[in-house]
Design brief:
The protein has 145 residues and is mainly alpha-helical. The protein contains seven helices and three strands, in the order H-H-H-E-H-H-E-E-H-H. Strands 1-3-2 form a three-stranded antiparallel beta sheet. A hairpin with a 2-residue loop joins strand 2 and strand 3.
Length: 145
């Protein structure tokens, strides 16, 4: 099999499997959230307040799709919209206190779920994972250019 095709299939499989690992039944029961909604919360948690265009780019959706995602998150009181004081046409999105708390609790629940399955993240394993994730992030960043 062509090595590139094999690698692509592995990326696709890992994407699906990571979601299953992170959002198992236990976590999903507490934090039922769509993939794009999660990506939106994660981007805002990592980058802080973003305008809709930059947030859409971070999440990998169109501005129209993001509007729907943000509408759902606003209704759940996880994010809020505001306006750029220098240009009121620019809509800014940020996490609310409820959203910050939601992300923190979800992260804690995921970590506890993983630990509850007997997986120990010792310093050596964490260092190895960090190295490999950094390499993958750099590689994916190159693909996005």
């Amino acid at each position: 099999m062509d090595k590139q095709v094999d690698l692509l299939k592995r990326f696709i499989r890992l994407n699906s499997e990571m979601r299953k690992v992170i959002f198992n039944q236990e976590v999903n029961a507490q934090f039922s959230i769509g993939r794009k909604q999660l990506a939106t919360l994660t981007a805002l948690n990592d980058k802080g307040e973003l305008n809709m265009t930059n947030l859409a780019r971070e999440v990998g959706v169109s501005n129209q799709q993001l509007t729907k995602i943000v509408d759902v998150l606003v209704k759940r009181k996880l994010v809020q919209r505001g306006y750029n004081p220098n240009n009121r046409r620019v809509v800014l999105v940020s996490l609310t206190e409820v959203g910050i708390d939601y992300v923190e609790k979800m992260t804690d629940a995921i970590i506890q779920s993983i630990k509850g399955r007997g997986i120990d993240f010792n310093k050596k394993k964490l260092a190895e994972i960090e190295t490999h994730l950094s390499y993958l992030e750099d590689f994916i960043e190159e693909l996005l250019i």
